[in-house]
């Protein structure tokens, strides 16, 4: 043993050993960094890998998913249940069965299928099953036109059109005149079929092909109702500053009809693909499904379109005859596209996808989140891109809009229910039908407005001021009707 | 094996390892376009793909002909602080992009927001001194909310990055 040992770190052997080990470890780290840089570069270089050929016949989204796994995985996630205060399945602000826990709706929808079954909304993945299972379809006869929005049907329409003698083949490009003829012919035919038969022709809920061109993934609209509806809107005189391509088309050569797939910008299509279904429409059975956009998108413009519309039997448009009063009334269906059009976000050029499918980053890739859902579940990506405030603050702002809307809607529902009860009492008391006619009109107006807001999926957020205006009018028409009944000397019934 | 031979062997090994480290380090540096970061070229900032939106919108912004990324995002008072800010941002960006553990949407840090504000004044100061004399600028939008937009860009959001649509 040495009395004077060299300190450990001064021994050449140890020093060399440490250098070797240190260099080895540093190399490992550098190589890890290199691997990371390489994979980021690769991610950015190749955004998709073509494993299967997609064409106009590929309906099954799982096939598309082989080429676009990230989008497909997120699309599948729409089956996950979620809830917000006023939305999704099982929210705290709204009942699971909306008619069980809000009996006013049973009175308002009396005599219509919505009075037997009306539930909370669920994610996209459920749209076809939910439709096949709702009592509104199982207990009432419904037409095939319901499938216009609840299934992937471009191919089903075209196949049916070909069977009915439309020209060409399925292989032709969607934009070709033959394909369009097939689509429209099949659409007309499917709308006339009973639902039970028609639903056998479709397999999937909304799928990739409904919004994307299989050749280059460009956005496109494929649903016949929208294709016709947007043409009607373009032909109207209503200003649409949020859809600049329509404004531009109006200034140009109008001999060729407006075509969203040709004229609209990508940003407009990021809303239009949603507007293929999230709209007000007439779904049959008396005439083929149509969007009532001939005069514009506002609640009273749609109402005016309906008021002027005559069914083939010459009768004025109505959805059903109210069981309690006999008034011919209207039913609104989820008019989100119309309501968004009245709001500040649309005006500022914000599309549906900007908030409901915000960009997500996966490595070096940036893609639209295909798990379509409430922006409230994704505030950072949906809202903070433009609004630089903390999440809680943004959520509180949305909630205050929705709470106010709900409170106003409660009052409006009360007004409509009171009017319905009073009209029923007047009929019982034997008041002359002729005298009640103008009051039926007031019921139709009031009810239409409440329903336009109630059926719209945003509890006022898409256009807060517009929604308040509509509900204000609803309350006014409801109470006007009651006053008119008083003037007829009808006994007082409803108190609230 | 004698101590000397062991030392020679170990020395060779250490040299080889050090060489491997230097070589792989150099290779990584080159493959990552390491030298480009010393330039003033705005395309360097999209090496990382993260800044693609910012870069694209800058090309549509009103300043794209007169200012590149560095003109607004680096200090120009002296070379030391310029290099320091460049290095520290470079380090944070590399770390974030390697570990992918950053919050989105990306937000400017207060220090960098100050650099940005100084650069607005570097070019426009003469014009804006009348306004800044009142002490209305150079403060966060709302200190209680920790918002990250200071001064000029609080209102003039689109001059640098242009319309995002």
From TrEMBL, chain A:
Signal peptide extent: none
Listed A to Z, the keywords are: Calcium, Heme, Iron, Membrane, Metal-binding, Oxidoreductase, Signal, Transmembrane, Transmembrane helix
Q: Where are the transmembrane segments?
A: 12-35
Q: Where in the cell is it found?
A: Cell envelope
By its UniProt entry, which Pfam families does this protein fall under?
Answer: Cytochrom_C552
What InterPro entries does the annotation carry?
Cyt_c552 (IPR003321), Multihaem_cyt_sf (IPR036280)
Highest taxon, organism lineage: Bacteria
Q: Which reaction does it catalyse?
A: 6 Fe(III)-[cytochrome c] + NH4(+) + 2 H2O = 6 Fe(II)-[cytochrome c] + nitrite + 8 H(+)
What are its E.C. numbers? Answer: 1.7.2.2
- Give the UniProt family note: Belongs to the cytochrome c-552 family.
The protein's name in its UniProt record = nitrite reductase (cytochrome; ammonia-forming)
Automatic annotation (TrEMBL), chain B:
Read off the SUPFAM superfamilies from this record: Multiheme cytochromes (SSF48695)
Q: Where in the cell is it found?
A: Cell membrane
Q: Which UniProt keywords are present, listed alphabetically?
A: Cell membrane, Electron transport, Heme, Iron, Membrane, Metal-binding, Transmembrane, Transmembrane helix, Transport
> Is-annotated flag, keyword Disulfide bond?
no
Q: What is its main location?
A: membrane
Cited InterPro entries: Cytochrome_c-type_ET (IPR051174), Multihaem_cyt_sf (IPR036280), NapC/NirT_cyt_c_N (IPR005126), NapC/NirT_cytc_sf (IPR038266), NrfH (IPR017571)
Indicate the segments forming the NapC/NirT cytochrome c N-terminal domain, all copies. Answer: 12-161
Quote the Gene3D superfamilies the UniProt record gives.
Di-heme elbow motif domain
Q: What is this protein called?
A: Cytochrome c nitrite reductase small subunit
User: Which family, according to UniProt?
Assistant: Belongs to the NapC/NirT/NrfH family.
Q: Which NCBIfam families does this one have?
A: cytochr_NrfH
UniProt source species: Geothrix edaphica
């Amino acid at each position: 043993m040495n009395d004077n040992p060299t300190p450990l770190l001064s021994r050449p052997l140890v020093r060399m050993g440490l250098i070797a080990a240190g260099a080895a470890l540093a190399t490992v780290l550098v190589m890890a960094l290199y691997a990371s840089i390489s994979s980021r570069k690769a991610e950015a270089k190749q955004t998709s890998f073509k494993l299967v050929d997609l064409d106009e016949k590929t309906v099954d989204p799982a096939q598309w998913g082989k080429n676009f796994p990230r989008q497909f995985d997120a699309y599948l996630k729409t089956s996950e249940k979620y809830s917000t205060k006023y939305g999704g399945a099982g929210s705290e602000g709204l009942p699971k069965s909306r008619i069980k826990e809000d009996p006013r709706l049973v009175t308002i929808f009396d005599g219509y299928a919505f009075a037997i079954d009306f539930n909370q909304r669920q994610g996209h993945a459920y749209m076809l099953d939910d439709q096949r299972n709702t009592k509104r379809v199982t207990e009432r006869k419904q037409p095939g036109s319901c499938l216009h929005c609840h299934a992937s049907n471009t191919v089903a329409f075209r196949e049916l059109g070909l069977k009915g003698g439309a020209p060409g083949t399925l292989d032709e490009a969607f934009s070709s005149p033959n394909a369009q003829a097939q689509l429209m012919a099949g659409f007309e035919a499917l709308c006339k079929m009973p639902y039970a038969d028609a639903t056998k022709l479709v397999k999937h809920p909304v799928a990739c092909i409904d919004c994307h061109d299989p050749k280059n993934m460009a956005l496109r609209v494929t649903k016949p109702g929208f294709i016709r509806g947007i043409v009607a809107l373009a032909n109207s005189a209503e200003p649409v500053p949020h859809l600049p391509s329509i404004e531009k088309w109006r200034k140009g050569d109008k001999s060729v009809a407006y075509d969203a797939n040709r004229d609209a910008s990508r940003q407009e299509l990021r809303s239009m693909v949603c507007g293929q279904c999230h709209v007000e429409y007439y779904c049959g059975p008396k005439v083929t499904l149509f969007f009532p956009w001939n005069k514009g998108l506002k609640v009273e413009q749609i109402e005016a379109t309906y008021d002027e519309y005559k069914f083939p039997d010459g009768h004025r448009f109505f959805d059903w005859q109210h069981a309690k009063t006999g008034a011919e009334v209207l039913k609104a269906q989820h008019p989100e596209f119309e309501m968004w059009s009245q709001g500040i976000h649309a005006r500022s050029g914000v599309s549906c996808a900007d908030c409901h499918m915000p960009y997500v980053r996966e490595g070096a890739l940036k893609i639209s989140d295909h798990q379509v859902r409430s922006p409230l579940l994704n505030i950072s990506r949906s809202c903070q891109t433009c609004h630089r405030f903390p999440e809680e603050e943004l959520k509180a702002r949305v909630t205050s809009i929705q709470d106010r809307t709900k409170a106003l809607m409660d009052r409006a529902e009360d007004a409509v229910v009171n009017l319905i009860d009073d009209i029923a009492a007047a009929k019982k008391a034997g008041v002359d039908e002729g005298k009640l006619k103008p009051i039926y009109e007031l019921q139709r107006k009031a009810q239409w407005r409440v329903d336009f807001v109630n059926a719209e999926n945003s509890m006022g957020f898409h256009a807060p001021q517009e929604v308040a205006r509509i509900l204000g009018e609803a309350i006014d028409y409801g109470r006007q009707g009651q006053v008119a009944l008083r003037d007829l000397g009808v006994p007082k019934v409803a108190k609230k | 094996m004698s101590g000397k031979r062991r030392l020679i062997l170990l020395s060779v090994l250490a040299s080889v390892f050090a060489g491997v480290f230097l070589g792989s380090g150099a290779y990584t540096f080159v493959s990552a376009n390491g030298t480009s970061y010393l330039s003033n070229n705005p395309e360097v900032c999209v090496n990382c793909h993260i800044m693609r939106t910012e870069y694209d919108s800058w090309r549509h912004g009103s300043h794209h002909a007169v200012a590149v990324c560095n003109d607004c995002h680096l200090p120009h008072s002296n070379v030391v602080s310029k290099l320091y800010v460049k290095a520290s941002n470079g380090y944070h960006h590399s770390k974030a992009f390697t570990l992918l553990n950053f919050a989105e949407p990306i937000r400017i840090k207060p220090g960098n927001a100050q650099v940005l504000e100084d650069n607005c004044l570097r070019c426009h100061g003469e014009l804006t001194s009348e306004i800044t004399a009142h002490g209305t600028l150079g403060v966060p939008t709302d200190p209680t909310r920790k918002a990250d937009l200071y001064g000029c860009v609080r209102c003039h959001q689109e001059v640098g990055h242009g319309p995002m649509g």
